[in-house]
Amino acid sequence: MSALLSIRGLGKRFLSRGTIVRAMENVSLDVQEGEFVTIVGPSGCGKSTLLNILVGLYPPSGGEIRFEGKPIRGLNPEIGYVTQQDNLLPWRTLRKNVLLPIEFRGGDGGGAEERVRALIRKVGLAGFDNHYPHELSGGMRQRANIIRTLAYNPRVILMDEPFGPLDAQTRLTLQNQLLDLWSEERKTIIFITHDLTEAITLADRVVVMTGRPGTIKSVTPIAIPRPRDVYHIHHSEAYREVYDKLWEELRAEVARIM
Amino acid sequence: MAQEVQSRPPEEVLIPAGLKGLRLLLWRIRRSEELRWVRVALLRLLFGVVMVAAWEGVSGRLIDQKIISSPGALLEAFIDLAGPENPDGTLWTHFAYTMENTFWGYLAGALLGILFGFMLAEAEVIAQVIEPFIMAFNGVPRIAYAPLFISWFGIERQPKIILVLTIVFFLCFVSTFSGIRSVPQELVNVARILGGRKVDILRKVVLPAASPWIFNGLKISIPFGMVGAIVGEYIIADRGLGYLLQRYNNEYFTTGIILVIFILMLFVVAVNQALNWAEGRMLRWRPTGQTGQEAATPN
Ligand SMILES: Nc1ncnc2c1ncn2[C@@H]1O[C@H](COP(=O)(O)OP(=O)(O)O)[C@@H](O)[C@H]1O
Ligand SMILES: [Mg+2]
Fold first, then answer.
1. Within chain B, where are the H helices?
2. What is the ipTM of this complex?
3. What's the CA-to-centroid distance between A6 and ligand 1, angstroms?
4. What three-state secondary structure class fits A223?
């Protein structure tokens, strides 16, 4: 079976204040349909750059991306992007924010409205439909951000440290909800995080990246059976083993750039 | 159960009639947080009354009434000038003339300003090319152009309207332009990824994000636009509040000058109140405590 998303030799250089910054180099990765891949790496190693290129915000300096075997350039409507900042439109209520991609696509009458209502309920935001973003907590806004992307059903969802700014308790709740949504909707997810526990809890495979210029250091399948218990996963032996291995790899990279 | 000692009257007690009731009411206005606005309104009224009384008291006694007029004289002049049998038109015809010129100049200037603001904000190179020219034209006090406009457009309404137009145009242009430039790129990117085409993004992201700035431009344009109309009339006209100011000035009619100033004051305050109300409704999505004025200041 060929991969849904196939990344080959991807690299990116930025020209910044007259010097060339090599952000990312020779990144190759195959992602299967329905897979949950998480990426960890030292900060500044080009993780966000990788997602920006995958979604098509700007082109790579080298390499190519194939979606279902066909090379893609520019924005791809099948790829959604959940950014670290929630980027909700402050003048729209929660419900209207989630409906935005559906309005952009010309809507489809009642079906979309119903789907949005169900998503809002599923992530525990029922009753807040008509609140403006400034009236919601950070966790609620990030949930709205996620279901806004789910609302229009892209096949691949990229997530850039979506739970980064949240407190530990809220993080666990959202991880749990994300796993539920993923197992129901069977999306393909590429998820960046700086939290190794989060990376292991969510993933089918964890990708460790090297310091800048970022490239792939290792890809580790996570054999912990699903459904996983986000609140107690750290008690399991399988978890501890893989955590120690990944932490060694990551620490070497962080140490190298310090 | 023992009756609790009431250290203050309970809120739900009805106010009894008579002197006792009045004292209770005053007591409550002084203390209650909810009635704070009543307190402010009463103190404002008091302040105004004291000012007017002091003015009336000083005028004709400490300072010559020819110099500072007086509230009484003002009222008399108002009744006289607003009356129907005034030879060269009542106050209202002058007021209407000025306001009509302001209105048309404002309308055209605002529409053109917003339109150009949008167009130039989207056209990077053109904006860079013409920016110094715009700034040069705008940097000169508008009164310097007035003689030119008069020689081009005559002494009727047109030069006044055009003076208003140029003032309002630049204020609206600059605020729209910087409003659009300040729209966060991330919001635009997210909208593109969510499937928005260029027009959708303009309508649903750029325009609302820039609206506080645009609104601010529209707001500050009102008093400045009025200045344009009045300056135009002051230079040459046979009607309008600016003409009245100029004539009263020649006649040393201080009361008339102050009367015109008061009319302008009342008008600007009323329009501002209306705009604040409209803005509050339109920009309901902003966090509270962030009024349009503060949040919308473009620089
Ligand atoms: N638009 C840009 N212009 C110049 N340099 C950039 C740009 N975007 C990212 N970089 C640089 O590329 C490197 C990788 O950035 P990023 O992908 O944000 O890292 P990460 O998300 O892994 O922390 C950093 O050194 C950053 O400064
Ligand atoms: Mg990043």
1. 18-31, 36-58, 65-68, 71-82, 91-122, 124-139, 146-153, 157-181, 185-193, 198-201, 207-235, 241-250, 254-282, 292-296
2. 0.90
3. 22
4. coil
Task: Please report the DSSP string for A80-147 in residue order.
Answer: EEE-SS----TTS-HHHHHHHHHHHTT--THHHHHHHHHHHHHTT-TT-TT--GGGS-HHHHHHHHHH
* Same domain for B72 and B88: no
Among the listed residues B177, B182, B175, the one whose alpha carbon sits nearest the alpha carbon of residue B214? B175
Looking at the structure of chain B, the number of domains it has is 2
Q: What is the CATH number of the domain that holds B230?
A: 1.10.3720.10
pLDDT tier, B7 (very low <50, low <70, confident <90, very high otherwise): low
pLDDT tens, residue by residue, B76-99: 888 888 877 666 668 888 999 999
Report which protein residue has its CA nearest ligand 1's atom 5: A14
On whether both B168 and B34 belong to a single domain, the answer is no
Average pLDDT over residues A104-127: 85
> Range with the lowest mean pLDDT among A101-105, B3-7, B240-244?
B3-7
Closest B-chain CA to A135 = B287
Domain boundary among B77, B101, B122: B77
Question: What are the structural domains of chain A?
Answer: 5-78+154-257 (3.40.50.300), 88-153 (no CATH)
pTM, two decimals, is 0.79
Give yes or no for residue A47 CB within 6 A of ligand 1. Answer: yes
Nearest residue in chain A measured CA to CA from B185: A87
Domain boundary among B62, B77, B92: B77
Integer Cα distance of A78 and A86 in angstroms: 20
Decide if pLDDT at B200 tops 80.
Answer: yes
pLDDT for residue B153: 83
Q: Does A85 contact chain B (CB < 8 Å)?
A: yes
Q: How far is it, in rounded angstroms, from Cα A131 to Cα B1?
A: 46
Q: What's the pLDDT band for B292 if we cut at 50, 70, 90?
A: very low
Could you tell me which residues come within 8 angstroms of residue A24 by beta carbon, excluding any fewer than 6 positions away?
A10, A11, A12, A45, A46, A49, A50, A213, A214, A215
Nearest atom in ligand 1 to the alpha carbon of residue A49 is 17
pLDDT per residue as tens digits for the range A14-70: 998 899 999 999 999 999 999 999 999 999 999 999 999 999 999 999 999 999 999
A86-101 burial by CB neighbour count: b if 16+ within 10 A, else e? bbbbbbbbbbbbbbbb
Same domain? For B152 and B242 the reply is yes
DSSP B50: H
- A247 - beta bridge partners? none
Interface test with A, best of B182, B187, B190 (most A CBs within 10 A): B190
Shared-domain flag, residues B55 and B177: no
- Distance set, CA A25 to CA A28, A47, B155, B281, B282 (Å): 9, 11, 72, 51, 48
Q: B60 lies in which domain range?
A: 2-77
Quickly tell me which residue has 């909707």 as its tokens: A185
Same domain flag for B132 and B239: yes
Which residue's CA is minimally distant from atom 6 of ligand 1?
A14
